[in-house]
């Protein structure tokens, strides 16, 4: 079964193919989406470059198996471990899959692994709810909790289980209508603004001699991309449960929704939320977010967003939903600059603040005062009614949006 | 026209091919290029702006003596500007002539005016069905700038190297073009596209490679200046900037300094020419006089770690 790198050329082809297959399975177990067709491609690639040079061999596999920049680090570490000793890694993977293998199994002590790979193969730690939390073994036990239980544990028991379930089903049906904007694509239309020569000519050939009717095209209208930035710090914790369901609903409602959460650091959870099943989606979110219910660094998080994500996500008149109470641990330091930049990079910045439900709300904290001048809409988000109201508010164009469309017209 | 050269048979040959065209590639990139040529798969290059992604396609075209067909992507790019368009004026004249002559039956007419001679080939169709019969290098540049519907269209072209025209049926490439796709990652390209391609992340070069690129591309630069420019740029890249300078910026900067007759870096010149390296006001603002002085002092004290 095992073939060391030097002897691989001497062995029949089947062993190399087997090892590639196993390697792909390891990558898949580590969370990389690698389809079966990739195995055949990988073997063809290796045949092309040969196995004499390890760098070539590695890059050949990488060119076929990696498809995103952030997968490179994981691939490299998996490569290093696997092509040194495949058995070792397989043992690792089987030991670390709690759902496939019974928990009663005596799991062997996992050997040392690069931390990034080990982390990718092990379900990441659940959010640490309390500072005096259990030790690592008991944290492992939390992996078997269903997301519902995790969410219930985060509850302040203001709702009964029935109420909770009801709210969830209602949230799942919630839509978020954004005003549609014209894009540069066109479609056939009776009353269009452009003559469709192709369709017109097609009509003319059918009726040679007669007067050919003109066919027209009109601009396609699409909803703009939506980017949600959600605060999951301690002060927002009681809303997180509700909001995650809401975010899952709007992520799956249509294309071009991106969701990022932040407390002390920024995490993109779009891929996790894309999962159709809300329980699985939320479980993955819980696994990937590490700063749950901790402190807030709004300025730093928005700065990271501006630097790393804004150019990738805020094209094509994107609308940004910023869900936060604006209570910043760094008392708004550097926040105004980042919020201003964010507001200027998107078509519309909507701030949803649960604190707005208090009738006597005043923009006292420094963070709130820094952000308020730059947002286009400032709306409450504390119960179902406010979320439903959000839909109505968003379908109204803002003064800025009106000015922009006025200019464009 | 020179005959097209055969594709390189090994990774080393690919590396030589690229080097002969003054493209200093690392071995990993050469491997990816070699595989793309050998397995006839599109090569998907992702990386920051200015690291030499587009250049690969140009170098391949000149190195393999093939024409370069370039498709620059933008939002709203549609089939009539990317793939093909019917030549409507000629079609109309044809119809008028047929009517005037009164000899052609209607069915024949509709078949005649949708004939290949009325087809205007846009880049993708040119690459699939080249006029001179030589399979070109097809560069699909900055795919991330276009929108999702166009990506979906590309799937057919990239997997089967064919274009379907409703009036004519599919046009299949007799010999598939060499396809290079670049993306600046301003958005994530759909997995379906990536699955059909070989992926390579083009990173910023290390100091040594950047120096050898600079020597080749800007041979007039004196050795000390070249080293200082590279060391300075490498340091800038390790800073927390909105947009780190690419190789293109390094080369531009070296040219700019040569034009100003500088043979070594000094803080005042750095401050004056910073706009060549950094393209965001925040970044330019971050390199204050003190920072520039410190960086120049460090660069001149340590030079490149070779």
What does this structure look like?
The complex is a heterodimer of chains A (409) and B (306). Chain A has helices at 13-29, 37-49, 54-65, 72-82, 86-95, 115-121, 136-141, 147-153, 161-172, 197-206, 237-253, 270-273, 278-288, 298-313, 335-345, 366-371, 384-395, 399-408, and strands spanning 181-189, 194-195, 216-222, 226-231, 257-262, 266-268, 319-323, 348-353, 377-380. In chain A, helix 2 (37-49) runs antiparallel to helix 3, helix 9 (161-172) packs parallel to helix 11 and helix 14 runs parallel beside helix 15. With 409 residues, chain A is of the alpha/beta class. Chain A is globular, with a radius of gyration of 26 Å. With 306 residues, chain B is of the alpha/beta class. Chain B has three domains: 11-83 and 122-201, Rossmann fold (3-Layer(aba) Sandwich); 88-113; 207-298. Chain B contains 15 helices and nine strands. In chain B, the strands form three sheets. In chain B, strands 2-5-8-1-9 form a five-stranded parallel β-sheet. In chain B, helix 11 packs across helix 15 (289-302) and helix 12 packs across helix 13 (267-277). Chain B is elongated. At the A-B interface, helix 2, helix 3, strand 1, helix 10 and helix 14 of A face helix 2, helix 5, helix 6, helix 9 and strand 9 of B.
Keywords:
heterodimer, A: 409 residues, alpha/beta, Rossmann fold, six-stranded mixed beta sheet, 18 helices, 47% helix, globular, disordered N terminus, disordered C terminus, B: alpha/beta, five-stranded parallel beta sheet, two-stranded antiparallel ribbon, 15 helices, 9 strands, 51% helix, elongated
- Global structural class of chain B: alpha/beta
Q: Estimate the helix proportion of chain B, in percent.
A: 40-55%
Strands ordered across the widest β-sheet of chain A: 6-5-4-7-8-9
Order of helices and strands of chain B: HHEHEHEHHEHEHEEEHEHHHHHH
**Full CATH superfamily name of the largest domain in chain A:** von Willebrand factor, type A domain
Helix content of chain A: 40-55%
Q: Any idea what the shape of chain B is?
A: elongated
- Gyration radius over CA of chain B: 24 Å
Please provide the count of β strands of chain A: 9
User: CATH top level of the largest domain in chain B?
Assistant: Alpha Beta
What's the quaternary structure here?
heterodimer
> What is the CATH architecture assignment of the largest domain in chain B?
3-Layer(aba) Sandwich
Question: How many discrete structural domains of chain B?
Answer: 3
Which percent range describes the beta-strand content of chain A? 5-15%
Classify the fold: give the CATH topology of the largest domain in chain B: Rossmann fold
The description of the largest β-sheet of chain B is:
5 strands, parallel
* Overall tally of structural domains of chain A: 3
Unreliable stretches covering 5 or more consecutive residues of chain A: 1-12, 98-116, 119-157, 405-409
Round the mean pLDDT of chain A to the nearest integer and report it: 73
Strand content of chain B: 5-15%
């Amino acid at each position: 079964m095992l073939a060391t790198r030097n002897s691989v050329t001497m062995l029949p082809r089947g062993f190399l193919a087997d090892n590639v297959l196993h390697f792909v399975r390891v990558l898949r177990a580590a969370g990389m989406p690698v389809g079966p067709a990739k195995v055949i491609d990988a073997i063809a690639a290796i045949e092309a470059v040969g196995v004499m040079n390890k760098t070539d061999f590695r890059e050949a596999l990488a060119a076929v198996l990696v498809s995103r920049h952030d997968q490179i680090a994981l691939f490299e570490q998996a490569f290093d471990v696997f092509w040194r000793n495949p058995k070792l890694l397989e043992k690792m993977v089987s030991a670390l899959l709690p759902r496939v293998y019974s928990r009663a199994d005596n799991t062997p002590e996992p050997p040392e692994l690069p931390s990034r790979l080990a982390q990718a193969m092990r379900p990441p730690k659940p959010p640490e709810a309390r500072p005096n939390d259990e030790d690592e073994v008991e944290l492992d036990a939390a992996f078997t909790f269903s997301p519902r239980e995790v969410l219930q544990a985060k509850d302040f028991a203001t709702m009964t289980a029935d109420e909770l379930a009801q709210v969830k089903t209602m949230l799942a049906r919630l839509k978020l209508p954004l005003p549609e904007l014209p894009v540069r694509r066109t479609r056939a239309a009776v009353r269009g603004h452009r003559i469709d020569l192709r369709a017109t000519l097609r009509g003319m050939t059918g009726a040679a001699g007669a007067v050919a009717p003109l066919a027209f095209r009109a601009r396609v209208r699409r909803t703009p991309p939506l980017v949600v930035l959600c605060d999951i710090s301690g002060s927002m914790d009681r809303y997180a449960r509700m909001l995650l369901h809401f975010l899952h609903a709007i992520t799956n409602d249509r294309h071009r929704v991106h969701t990022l959460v932040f407390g002390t650091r920024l995490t993109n959870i779009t891929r996790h939320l894309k999962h159709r099943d809300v329980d699985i989606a939320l479980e993955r979110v819980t696994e990937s977010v590490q700063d749950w219910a901790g402190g807030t660094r709004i300025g730093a998080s928005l700065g990271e967003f501006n630097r790393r994500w804004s150019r990738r996500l805020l094209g094509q008149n994107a609308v940004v939903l910023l869900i936060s109470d604006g209570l910043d641990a760094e008392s708004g330091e550097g926040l105004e600059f980042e919020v201003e930049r964010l507001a200027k990079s998107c078509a519309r910045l909507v701030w949803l603040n649960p604190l707005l439900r208090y009738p006597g709300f005043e923009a006292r904290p420094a963070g709130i005062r820094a952000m308020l001048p730059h947002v286009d809409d400032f709306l409450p988000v504390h119960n179902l009614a406010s979320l439903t109201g959000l839909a109505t508010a968003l379908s109204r164009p803002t003064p800025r949006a009106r000015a922009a469309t006025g200019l464009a017209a | 026209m020179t005959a097209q050269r055969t594709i390189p048979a090994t990774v080393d040959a690919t590396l030589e091919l690229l080097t002969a065209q003054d493209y200093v590639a690392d071995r990993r990139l050469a491997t990816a290029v070699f595989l793309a040529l050998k397995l006839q798969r599109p090569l998907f290059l992702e990386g920051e702006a200015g690291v030499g992604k587009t250049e690969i396609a140009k170098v391949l075209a000149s190195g393999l003596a093939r024409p370069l067909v370039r498709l620059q992507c933008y939002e709203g790019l549609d089939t009539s500007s990317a793939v093909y368009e019917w030549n409507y004026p000629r079609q109309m004249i044809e119809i008028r002539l047929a009517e005037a002559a009164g000899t052609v039956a209607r069915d024949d007419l509709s078949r005649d005016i949708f004939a290949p001679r009325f087809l205007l080939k846009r880049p993708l169709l040119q690459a699939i069905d080249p006029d001179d019969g030589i399979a070109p290098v097809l560069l699909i540049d900055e795919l991330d700038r276009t929108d999702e519907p166009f990506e979906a269209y590309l799937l057919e072209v990239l997997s089967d190297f064919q274009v379907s025209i409703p009036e004519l049926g599919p046009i299949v490439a007799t010999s598939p073009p060499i396809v290079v796709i670049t993306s600046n990652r301003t958005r994530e390209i759909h997995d379906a596209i990536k699955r059909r391609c070989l992926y390579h992340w083009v990173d910023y070069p290390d100091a040594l490679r950047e120096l050898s690129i600079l020597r080749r591309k800007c041979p007039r630069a004196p050795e000390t200046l070249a080293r200082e420019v590279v060391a300075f740029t490498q340091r800038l890249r390790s800073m927390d900037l909105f947009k780190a300078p690419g190789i293109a910026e390094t080369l531009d900067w070296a040219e700019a300094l040569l034009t100003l007759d500088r043979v070594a870096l000094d803080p005042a010149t750095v401050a004056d020419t910073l706009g060549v390296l950094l393209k965001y006001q925040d970044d330019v603002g971050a390199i204050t006089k003190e920072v520039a002085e410190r960086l120049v002092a460090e660069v001149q004290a340590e030079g490149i770690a070779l």
